[in-house]
Amino acid sequence: MHVVVGGDIGGAERVVAELATRPEPTAADHQVALFTPNRALAAYFVDVGVRVHDRGPVRENPLSYLFRSFGPTDARWLSSLLARESIDVVHTHTFGSHVLGTRAAQRAGKPQLRTEHHVMHYFDPSCSPFTRWAAARTDRFVAVSDYVRGVVARTAPRVAERMTVVRNGVDTAHFAPGERAAPHEARAGALHLGIVCRLTAWKRVHLAVEAAALSRCELVVIGDGEERARLEAMAKERGAAVRFVGYRPDPRPFVAACDAILSTAESEPLGLSVLEALSMGRPVIAFAAGGVPEIVEHERTGFLVQEATAAALATAIARAQADPAALGRMGDNGRRFAVEQCSIERMCEGYAAAYADTNANANATAKVGAS
Fold first, then answer.
1. Model confidence pLDDT, tens digit, residues 130-165
2. b/e string for 52-87 if b means 16 or more Cβ within 10 A?
C-alpha cells in the first residue's frame, strides 16, 4: 500500500504510478491510500489504472498536517484499510505520509518501506523532528540516488544502515527520441531550450529565465506552481523569450522541440525530468550539485555548471549554441545511458528486491517473537 499525502503531481507521485502499474516486474500488487486536496492528483492515479482508496478532499496546511498525522481519525482509517486489504508492506514516500503511514503501519502490525525522494525534511526545523521520529520506526529505506544516501548517512547513520539505493527509472520506450527541431528555425542564432519542473522556490527557475535573457535563447517552461506569476513578470521585465505552457501530463512534444533541457534546482536529489530528457536524446545543462552528476556526464551527455548563477548558466548555454553537432552527439550518448543504466525495468527490479527484503525480515522477526 502506497501512502500518498500531498497536493502536487511531482516526481514522487509519478514514481508511485510507474511502480503501481507494473505488478509483475515489481513482484507486487499495488494500491494507493490517498490524502489530497487536489482532485487532479486523484484523477491521475485513477486514469493510469491504479486502485485508489481516496480519503476524499483534505486540507493541506500545518494544522491539518498535525491533526492528520497525530490525531486518531486518519490513522484509524488507514490501519483498518491495511488490515482489510491484507497488505504485506506499507510504502511511504513524501514528508506528509511519514508519521501517518508509520502510525498506521504499527497499529496494523505491518512492515514499512520508505523512499527518500529528497533530504530537505531531515534539516528543515519544522519537518526534521517528525521525519526522524518516523524514520526510527521504519523497517527499510530506499534512496533515489547515492547523493541522497550519502546525505542521510551523515545526518542519520542508523537510517542509512537500513537503506539501499534504487535510482528512479524512465520508460525508455515511452520517452523515446523524437524528431529534432532545426536549432535556429524560430529565431536566427537562438537556441531552443526547455525546463520541466514544478514552479516552486527550490527549483530556482528564475536562474533559467535570467540565463535565457542573458544568452538570448528561447526557453519554454513546462510546469506550474506558486512561482509562476513572479517568473512571468520577471521574464517580461528582462525581455526574455520565455514561453510558459503550464503543467502538461505529457511533456514529450515540448521536450522533442528543444535542443537541450535545463535543470536549475538546488541540490536536486536525482531529477526525473533530467532522465526523461536524456532518454529522448536531449542533452542536459544543469548545475553540478545533488544527484545530477550521477546521471549527467560533463561534455558527454550535457554540461555541468559549477557555479549556481545565471551568468554561469548563460556561459554554458553559449557553449552549447556554438556547437550544434556536439549537442547531437551528447543527445545520442544520453539516450544510450538512459537505456542501459536508468530504465524502468531496473527500477522495478530494485523495488522488487526491497519489497521482498522488507517482508522477509518482518516475517523472520515475527517468528522469533512467537518462539
1. 999 999 999 999 999 999 999 999 999 999 999 999
2. bbbbeebebeeeebeebbeeeebbeebbebbeeeeb
Cell numbers placing 54: 481516496
The three-point CA angle 174-26-137 to 5° equals: 120
Residue-level pLDDT at 187: 47
Domain boundaries, the chain: 2-169+344-370, 192-341
Distance set, CA 18 to CA 163, 250, 304 (Å): 21, 14, 28
What gap in Å lies between CA 80 and CA 38, rounded to an integer?
24
For the chain, percent of residues with pLDDT exceeding 70 = 95
Identify the architecture of domain 192-341 in CATH: 3-Layer(aba) Sandwich (3.40)
Task: Look up residue 150 and give its amino acid.
Answer: G
Buried-state track 273-294, b at ≥16 Cβ within 10 A, e below 16: bbbbbbbbbbbbbbbebbbbbb
- Closest C-alpha among 335, 190, 346 to residue 258: 190
> Average pLDDT, stretch 306-324?
96
How many C-beta neighbours within 10 Å does residue 265 have?
Answer: 25
366 pLDDT band, cuts 50/70/90, is low
Fold matches, 2-169+344-370 and 192-341: yes
Task: Give residue-wise pLDDT tens across range 204-246.
Answer: 999 999 999 999 999 999 999 999 999 999 999 999 999 999 9
Q: How would DSSP label each residue in 61-86?
A: SHHHHHHHHHSHHHHHHHHHHHHHTT
Give residue 141's identity as a one-letter amino acid code. Answer: F
- Average pLDDT (25-42) is 96
Rounded CA separation 43/326 (Å):
41
145 closest CA partner among 116, 175, 114: 116
How many angstroms from the chain centroid is the CA of residue 65? 22
CATH code 3.40.50.2000 for 2-169+344-370: yes
Sign of CA dihedral 178, 285, 235, 245: positive
75-96 confidence digits (pLDDT tens) = 999 999 999 999 999 999 999 9
